[in-house]
Amino acid sequence: MQLPARFAKYELQEFLGGGMSHVYRAVDTVIGRTVAVKILTEQGIKDEEAKQRFLHEARMSGSIQHDYIVTVHDYGEEQGYPFIVLEFLHGEDLREAIRKNHVGDVANKTRIALEVAQALAYVHQRGIIHRDIKPENIYIEESGRSKLMDFGIAKAEGFNLTKAGNSMGTPFYMSPEQVMGATITPLADVYSYGMLLYELFSGVKPVTGDTLQRLFYIILNEHPDPNPLLASGTPPSVMDLIQRCTAKKPEHRIQSFNAIADALKGILAGNYPPPAATQPSYNYSPTPTPIPTPAPANSNLVPILAVAGVAVVLVAAAVSGWFYYSNTKTEPNAKQPEPKQTLPVKGGSVLPVPAGPYLAGMSKVSVDLPAFSIDRTEVSNQAYSEFAAANGLPLPTGASNLPVVNVSFNQAQAFCKWAGKQLPTESQWEKAARGTDGRTYPWGSELKADLVIAKENPLAASGPAAVDSLAVGKSPFGVLHMAGNVWEWVDRPHSPSPAAVESLRTALKPPPNAQEPWEYIKGGSYDRGISEALAYEWVSLPARFSSSNIGFRCVLPPAL
């Protein structure tokens, strides 16, 4: 379009951007007011759902008048093109303000948070759920005043444009119930707002991930890391409020934006009661904590309350089809080594893993490792019985070809030493599991339930499988059951979060503490979903912990 151009009573003067709709700075030629005109494109008109959503935004926004919400002056249709006329704002969106460090000190951040909360309290009172709260939809005027924008996917009672099984919203800020495609209530906005508060005060996104699968897993199972908030000097009272907003279950969240606004007013006035402890009662853990199946009755374990469940993630996959990696249609391109002949050694045969780099972690960072050999299978009851008999220890129960379980890190380490080996480091285990090309699972990057002993496979219903079974799911180096079957101890000391310590308080006697040794387990188990079998995932537990779904295997460095 050649500018300036006449459109209805508006003179379009400058193109500001857009996608399905284009936004222009314009002048209302009748009253001389500068406005922003949002026009649905020809492509948008041909997309019936996009057109209906645009018209819905016009009607929804046109009924809203609030100091902290962008004003809609007009809407209609011109020459077949629907349009919305909004107040023209001078300033920047909150994303830019955060990036450029324009959000000011704690008091100013709290003021911004209060204005947004008051805007959302207003729309909720009108029966509207915004459903897309994010920094891009908050505008900070040059005066400093905040404006809530974009009601394109807002939902009022009786209106639903989402297709069955889909959940609208921006993934980084979506609530667990949005991810799951469940009924959306105003408390979904409370959760998204809490995530926005985290970013406003810390300067970083509370959820990161390069795939939707990873993002959804985090949303459903992990809590934001408190360290960026602590590093940015966020007051304990604000951290407490963020925690109350972002509880996984809606019923555990603060229940309204009026209550949030009251809390923020109290913080600004210095009247919001901080937690009693010196450190805030911010019980978020940056990593998921499993709920290991309790050991047999003769164990000193007691049943563990559920802290995080990931089987629900696979429900989201079935419902929305979003759950797969972008490369699930193809296998990794890198040429993988042919598995070599196993070498019989004490405690079980090993397979060689040659020296060289592999792609580590979710970000696939290249890490170079020396050569080593790793047990082809988990340590079996039969192998562990030899160790137990030689050292006067209780013999394991169960069939001889099943993986030994109810073994602590310390006991696993003792076995490996007896066998002339050692527990694998996290890097050794991961390379043996995923090969050198950064695949997600031992077999590739697709979710294949028939290749893993996990909840999605009927074979897992009776418990773990024999250590030498299911060879079709082997890793590029020929190693079996690196995903599913039983969790495996690896030698990776870790300092636990307060939430991790608290979640296991009743599982051990004496209760665990952050000062005692904690180590990683990896690989998932028969009673957990495939999503916990990601090769780069891990869980931290006390080294003295044991459970009926945790086993181990050993490695043999070339020097030994």
Describe, in short, the structure shown.
The protein is α+β, with helices and mostly antiparallel strands and 560 residues long. 27% of the residues lie in helices and 16% in strands.
Give the SSE map.
Blueprint: E1 5-7, E2 10-18, E3 21-28, E4 34-40, H1 42-46, H2 48-62, E5 72-78, E6 81-87, E7 91-93, H3 94-99, H4 106-125, E8 128-129, E9 138-141, E10 146-148, E11 155-156, H5 176-179, H6 186-202, H7 212-221, H8 227-231, H9 236-245, H10 257-269, H11 311-320, E12 350-353, E13 356-360, E14 365-369, E15 372-375, H12 381-390, H13 409-418, H14 426-434, E16 487-490, H15 498-503, E17 518-522, E18 539-542, E19 550-551, E20 555-556
Parallel strand pairs: 16-19
Antiparallel strand pairs: 1-2, 2-3, 3-4, 4-6, 5-6, 7-9, 8-11, 9-10, 12-15, 13-14, 15-20, 16-17, 17-18
